[in-house]
Q: What sequence folds into this?
C-alpha cells in the first residue's frame, strides 16, 4: 500500500500565525462550527455505483471506482477554509487523494490536461478552477474529514478541496474534473460570484479586482 | 522504463520520492551540501534541479527548488543549499536537518540548462554566488568523464570565505590544464588574493572567457540581475545568443 | 407541486426568497407562476424549493428538482437567472 508523505523531523512553519487576525482574510470572522450551505438537496450516491472521472478536452477519460480511489496514495492536510458568506474555520483536517496523483495516473491512461478545469458534481453543481490552482499539492479529492468519512451534508462521499480559494470552489459531491481550454464560469460564477475567488484579495463577486 | 514517452515524462516529473539524508557537508558558513539516498532515482543530467518538499507534523508543507550539485556519474545525489535569512526551508535544510532525516524530492527537472560532454565546447561557465551549484555538476561530470573539452569558469562571490567548493575547484584546475578557474570577489578579499576585485563587467568577460570566434557554449547562473547583465554583455561581445544559456535564482538579489 | 419524501433541513420554500425577489420586482413575485423548463410543471414561485439562501437564492422545481430561478445580490447588482423557467406569469392585479 502506498505511503503518505513522510514527516520531516524538526521542520515547522517559520511564521506561525500568532494571532487569529493574521489568519483571517479580509472581511471574514472565525467560526468553530461548520455551516452547511448547499445549492440543492444532498445527493445520496451509492458507493457501489460511484465513480470519479478525469476528462480531457478530446473526451478521453480516466475513471476510478470508489475502491480504486481509496487505493491511491493519500495526501492528508490541515488547512484553514474560507467561505464567501464570511465565516472562516481554522485547522480543518482532511485526507484524500491529491489532484497531482490523479493527474499522473490519468496521464498514464492518455488523459491530456488543459489550463482550466470544471468540477462537475452529483446534483448538477459546477465550479471552475485554473489547473495551476489544483496542482503542486494545492488541491485534493477529499473523503475524510476530521478522521471520519466525509458526511453527505459536507459533500460526502467525496468533495474537491481547494482551500486557498473561497470554499464554494471546493465542490461538494464531485464526480468529474473536466479539462477546458478556456475558462468558463460554473454555477455561482455565472450569477455574480467571482470567476477566481481569492479570499486574500477579497474576490467575492464578479468585477472585484 | 517502458511507459509511453509523454505519459512517462509527466509521471517522472510529478512523482515524489523519499530522500534520506546520508550526510551533510558545510561548504561555507551559509551553505551546506546534502548527500542523499533516493531509492529509484532515475538519474539526471548536469544542470538540472529538483523540487524538495517538507511536511511538518501538523501537515504544513513547503516546497522549494534546488540545483543538483553532483555529477550524473556520482553514486549519491547531492544538493547544495544556501541559507536565506528569511528562508523557511533553507534554514531547516542548513540547520536542524541531520543524517537519517527524510524529505520528499521530485525530478530531475530541466531540459534547457543542461550540459554533457557530448555537447562539446569550448565551455564558458559564469557563476554568481550559489549559481555555482549547477555549474559544479557540469564540472564534476566533465572530470568524471576525463574530458579534455577546454573550459573556463568565472565565479563571482562577495567574500573569499563564501566561495563554495573553493578547494575542489583548485584541485580540479590544478590537475587539468584544460580547465581555468577565475574568481572575482566583490566585497572583502584577502590581501594575498590574486583574482579580480569587482563585479563582472564586459572587460572581465573578454579576459576570462573565450573569443566569440571560438563559439563557446556559455552557461550563466546566479541572481537575476547578474545573469541578465552578463548575458547582455555576452551578446554585445558578439556571442551567439543561441549558445548562451541562463538560469536565474530568484527575482532579486545582490549583483555580485 | 410535489412534496418531499424526506425533510432536507437545508431547504425552505420560495416564500423565504420574497425579500430578495422583492428587490427587483415591484410586485410580489412569490404569487407568480413559474413553469419549469425541464419537466413543464407549473406552480407558484413561493412553492418552489429554496436553497442556499446565504449565497443568494436557488429555487428548484418541486417536481423534477431542476433549478428554475437563481438570484444573487452583490454590493452593486442583483443577478437574476430565469433560464430554468419556460415563462413566469406575474399577476398585476
A:
Amino acid at each position: 500500500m502506498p505511503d503518505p508523505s513522510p514527516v520531516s523531523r524538526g521542520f515547522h512553519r517559520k511564521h506561525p500565525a500568532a494571532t487569529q487576525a493574521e489568519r483571517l482574510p479580509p472581511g471574514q470572522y472565525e467560526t468553530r462550527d461548520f455551516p452547511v450551505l448547499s445549492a440543492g438537496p444532498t445527493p445520496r450516491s451509492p458507493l457501489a455505483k460511484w465513480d470519479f472521472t478525469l476528462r480531457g478536452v478530446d473526451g478521453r477519460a480516466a475513471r476510478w471506482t470508489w475502491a480504486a480511489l481509496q487505493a491511491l496514495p493519500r495526501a492528508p492536510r490541515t488547512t484553514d477554509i474560507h467561505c464567501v458568506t464570511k465565516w472562516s474555520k481554522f485547522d480543518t483536517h482532511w485526507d484524500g487523494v491529491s489532484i497531482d496523483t490523479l493527474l499522473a495516473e490519468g496521464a498514464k491512461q492518455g488523459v491530456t490536461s488543459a489550463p482550466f478545469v470544471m468540477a462537475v458534481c452529483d446534483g448538477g453543481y459546477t465550479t471552475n478552477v485554473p489547473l495551476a490552482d489544483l496542482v503542486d499539492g494545492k488541491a485534493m479529492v477529499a473523503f475524510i474529514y476530521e478522521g471520519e468519512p466525509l458526511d453527505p451534508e459536507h459533500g460526502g462521499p467525496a468533495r474537491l478541496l481547494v482551500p486557498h480559494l473561497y470554499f464554494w470552489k471546493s465542490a461538494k459531491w464531485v464526480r468529474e474534473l473536466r479539462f477546458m481550454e478556456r475558462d468558463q464560469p460554473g454555477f455561482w460564477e455565472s450569477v455574480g460570484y467571482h470567476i477566481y475567488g481569492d479570499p486574500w484579495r477579497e474576490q467575492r463577486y464578479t468585477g472585484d479586482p | 522504463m517502458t511507459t509511453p514517452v509523454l505519459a512517462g515524462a509527466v509521471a517522472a516529473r510529478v512523482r515524489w520520492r523519499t530522500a534520506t539524508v546520508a550526510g551533510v557537508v558545510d561548504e561555507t558558513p551559509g551553505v551546506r551540501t546534502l548527500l542523499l539516498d533516493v531509492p529509484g532515482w532515475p538519474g539526471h543530467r548536469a544542470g538540472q534541479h529538483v523540487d524538495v518538499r517538507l511536511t511538518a507534523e501538523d501537515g504544513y508543507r513547503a516546497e522549494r527548488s534546488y540545483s543538483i550539485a553532483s555529477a550524473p556519474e556520482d553514486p549519491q545525489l547531492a544538493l547544495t543549499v544556501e541559507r536565506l535569512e528569511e528562508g523557511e526551508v533553507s534554514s531547516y535544510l542548513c540547520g536542524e536537518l541531520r543524517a537519517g532525516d527524510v524529505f520528499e524530492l521530485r525530478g530531475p527537472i530541466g531540459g534547457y540548462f543542461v550540459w554533457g560532454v557530448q555537447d562539446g565546447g569550448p565551455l564558458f561557465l559564469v557563476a554568481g554566488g550559489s549559481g555555482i551549484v549547477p555549474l559544479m555538476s557540469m564540472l564534476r561530470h566533465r572530470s568524471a568523464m576525463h574530458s579534455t573539452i577546454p573550459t573556463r569558469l568565472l565565479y563571482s562571490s562577495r567574500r573569499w570565505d563564501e566561495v563554495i567548493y573553493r578547494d575542489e575547484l583548485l584541485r580540479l584546475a590544478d590537475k587539468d590544464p584544460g580547465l581555468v578557474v577565475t574568481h572575482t570577489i566583490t566585497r572583502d578579499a584577502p590581501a594575498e588574493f590574486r583574482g579580480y576585485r569587482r563585479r563582472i563587467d564586459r572587460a572581465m568577460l573578454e579576459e576570462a572567457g573565450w573569443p566569440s570566434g571560438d563559439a563557446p557554449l556559455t552557461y550563466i547562473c546566479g541572481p537575476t540581475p547578474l545573469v541578465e547583465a552578463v548575458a547582455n554583455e555576452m551578446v554585445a561581445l558578439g556571442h551567439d545568443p543561441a549558445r548562451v544559456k541562463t538560469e536565474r535564482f530568484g527575482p532579486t538579489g545582490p549583483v555580485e | 407541486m410535489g412534496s418531499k419524501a424526506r425533510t432536507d433541513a437545508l431547504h425552505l420554500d420560495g416564500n423565504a426568497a420574497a425579500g430578495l425577489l422583492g428587490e427587483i420586482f415591484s410586485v410580489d413575485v412569490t404569487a407568480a407562476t413559474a413553469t419549469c423548463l425541464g419537466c413543464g410543471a407549473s406552480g407558484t414561485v413561493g412553492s418552489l424549493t429554496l436553497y442556499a439562501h446565504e449565497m443568494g437564492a436557488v429555487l428548484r422545481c418541486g417536481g423534477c428538482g431542476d433549478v428554475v430561478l437563481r438570484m444573487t445580490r452583490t454590493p452593486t447588482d442583483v443577478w437574476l437567472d430565469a433560464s430554468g423557467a419556460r415563462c413566469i406569469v406575474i399577476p398585476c392585479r
User: Anything to note?
Assistant: The first helix of chain C runs from residue 18 to 22. Residues 12-89 of chain C form one domain. The two ends of chain C are 24 Å apart (CA to CA). The mean pLDDT of chain C is 78.
